[in-house]
């Protein structure tokens, strides 16, 4: 990491990965966030392996995402999309959504506001 005059430069592979407990075969890195001096947004990288994904859930913050590689089925509320490298997604705060890997590794960047985020797993119902 090279942090100079309020800026940060680092290789994303140098950032520690942590397992996402709610996910299957899913890890996440916080590439940039408030601890780096980023005042408004955090940039995260998610990597989902074979058979991986995230169950239907909600977040109290919005997500802006950019798919780097792989393919997945993503459901946002009642609409399902197949996404691949080069796809961008906007998931509003409170929207029910889930991910199912179709081609691993499925990897994407996810930008979120630097605010407390409460995640609620929706279970098998569709009421959120």
Task: Write the topology of this structure.
Blueprint: E1 2-4, E2 7-9, E3 18-19, E4 24-32, E5 41-59, E6 63-76, E7 79-84, E8 88-91, E9 97-113, E10 119-121
Antiparallel strand pairs: 1-2, 3-4, 4-5, 5-9, 5-10, 6-7, 6-8, 6-9
Protein traits:
single chain, 128 residues, mainly beta, Jelly Rolls, eight-stranded antiparallel sheet, two-stranded antiparallel sheet, globular
In short:
This protein has strands at 2-4, 7-9, 18-19, 24-32, 41-59, 63-76, 79-84, 88-91, 97-113, 119-121. It has 128 residues and is an all-beta fold.
Task: Give an account of the 3D structure.
By secondary structure, the protein is mainly beta. It has one domain (20-121): Jelly Rolls, CATH 2.60.120.10. 0% of the residues lie in helices and 62% in strands. It contains no helices and ten strands. The strands form two sheets. Strands 3, 4, 5, 6, 7, 8, 9 and 10 form an eight-stranded antiparallel beta sheet that branches. Strands 1-2 form a two-stranded antiparallel ribbon. Strand 1 (2-4) and strand 2 (7-9) form a beta hairpin. The N and C termini lie far apart (40 Å).
């Amino acid at each position: 990491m090279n942090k100079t005059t309020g800026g940060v430069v680092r290789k994303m592979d140098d950032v520690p990965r942590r397992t996402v407990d709610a996910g299957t075969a899913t890890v996440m890195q916080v590439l940039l966030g408030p601890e780096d001096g980023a005042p408004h947004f955090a940039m995260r990288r998610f990597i989902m392996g074979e058979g991986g994904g995230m169950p239907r859930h909600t977040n109290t913050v919005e997500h802006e995402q950019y798919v780097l590689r792989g393919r997945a089925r993503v459901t946002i509320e009642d609409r399902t999309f197949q996404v691949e490298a080069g796809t961008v997604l906007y998931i509003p705060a409170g929207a029910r959504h889930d991910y199912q890997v179709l081609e691993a590794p499925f990897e994407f960047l996810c930008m979120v506001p630097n605010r407390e985020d409460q995640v609620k797993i929706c279970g098998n119902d569709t009421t959120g």
